[in-house]
């Protein structure tokens, strides 16, 4: 009998950096986030090349029942008074959930169900977020450092960005130096 020992991918918990494994990296820049931020004028005035977030994920074969693992590194910053955030999405297979784990930095996880009801969970090193099916999700960086969160989700889930063209109903802005929540409805 031959017993094989294979080195697994490794993540540094404090930084979210992977140090081993077949990895895929994707950067999302301000120019990729059309109509994501409320203040269109402020968005146009920003450097389009500026990276808002990077996702580094283990390149797993998307076979039935398999899971993906990835880390999102969300930069600190704002467009107008709205904090940097991920685009956010529903899963294409709506019933599929996901788990996010906060690694570094501080921010919020915005969750919105199909009726449009939104809620927030604080994200911090060690936070665990059970995202149920039928729930759109977005990370928001309200801190001064990079917000990194590890995610595990079913390969079968897929992503549906189009269903959120009206955006999320809740926005997170800085007003007089404080984090403020705003209800927002696209017209
Ligand atoms: C996967 C997942 C995360 C996000 C990542 C970037 O289902 O939720 O890995 O894909 O945080 O956000 P989006 O995909 O909304 O640009
Ligand atoms: Mn997801």
How many independent structural domains?
A: 1
Bound molecules: fructose -6-phosphate, manganese (II) ion
CATH class: Mainly Beta
Q: Would you tell me which CATH topology applies?
A: Jelly Rolls
Shape: globular
Let me know the number of strands. Answer: 15
Question: Count the helices. How many?
Answer: 1
GO cellular component, one term: cytoplasm
Protein name: glucose-6-phosphate isomerase
Pfam families: GPI
InterPro entries: G6P_isomerase_prok, RmlC-like_jellyroll, RmlC_Cupin_sf
Please outline what is shown here.
With 187 residues, this protein is mainly beta. The protein contains 1 helix and 15 strands; from the N terminus they run βββαββββββββββββ. The strands form 5 sheets. A 6-stranded antiparallel sheet has the order 3-4-5-13-8-11, with no helix packed on it. A 3-stranded antiparallel sheet has the order 10-9-12, with no helix packed on it.
Describe the protein's architecture and organization:
This protein has 187 residues and is mainly beta. It has a single domain (10-183), classed as Jelly Rolls. The chain has one helix and 15 strands. It has one helix at 40-45; strands spanning 10-12, 17-20, 23-29, 51-58, 67-74, 78-79, 82-83, 98-104, 107-113, 118-123, 128-131, 135-141, 147-154, 170-175, 178-183. The strands form five sheets. It has a six-stranded antiparallel β-sheet, with no helix packed on it. A hairpin with a 2-residue loop joins strand 6 (78-79) and strand 7 (82-83). The mean pLDDT is 96. Bound molecules: fructose -6-phosphate and manganese (II) ion (MN). Residues 28, 55, 70, 72, 86-89, 98, 137, 139, 151, 153, 157, 159 line the site of fructose -6-phosphate. Pathway: Carbohydrate degradation; glycolysis; D-glyceraldehyde 3-phosphate and glycerone phosphate from D-glucose: step 2/4.
